[in-house]
Specification:
The chain has helices at 38-42, 59-67, 89-92, 96-105, 109-113, 119-135, and strands spanning 2-4, 7-16, 22-29, 49-52, 71-74. The strands form two sheets. Strands 1-2-3 form a three-stranded antiparallel beta sheet. A two-stranded parallel ribbon has the order 4-5. It is built from six helices and five strands, in the order βββαβαβαααα. By secondary structure, the protein is α+β, with helices and mostly antiparallel strands.
């Protein structure tokens, strides 16, 4: 767990399909930025486009996504002044599936309340919850 202004926290980063099935899940300390885990997550990505929110808006990530032959559909960070790009709104609407996947993960009480205090044990609980999502 990492230390942030609010206390001890952690972030769950996930890659999922357009149907909301998790493909890869990682865990980082709470004070760490979102884009730091993106390089690891896109290794497991396949398809025509990669859809992400503004926390993953970085030029090096956009180039890495294009290098893999996918179209980056990443929301712009509001502070970005240069290299603005247009996104397909129809594709960006599919990002709701990621939010729905996190909602379904939080239905598992052990995931939502984080009873496990070590990162390895909590990641194991996340993997078990992801397996349950695949089975249902």
């Amino acid at each position: 767990m990492g230390r942030s202004r609010g206390g001890f926290s952690s972030k769950v980063h996930a890659l999922c399909t357009t149907q909301g099935q998790p493909l890869e899940v990682t865990l980082t300390p709470g004070q760490r930025g979102d884009v730091t885990e993106a390089e690891h997550l896109i290794q497991y990505a396949h398809g025509k486009a990669l859809i992400a929110d503004a926390g993953y808006d970085a030029d090096h990530l956009v180039q890495a996504v294009r290098k893999r032959g996918m179209r980056p559909v990443i929301a712009m960070n509001p502070t970005r002044k240069h290299h603005r790009r247009r996104n397909c709104r129809a594709l960006y609407r599919l990002r709701i599936q990621v939010e729905c996947m996190f909602h379904r993960l939080k239905r598992f009480r052990a995931v939502a309340t984080r009873y496990e205090k070590t990162a390895t044990n909590y990641l194991a609980v996340l993997h078990l919850a992801c397996m349950m999502l695949w089975l249902n």
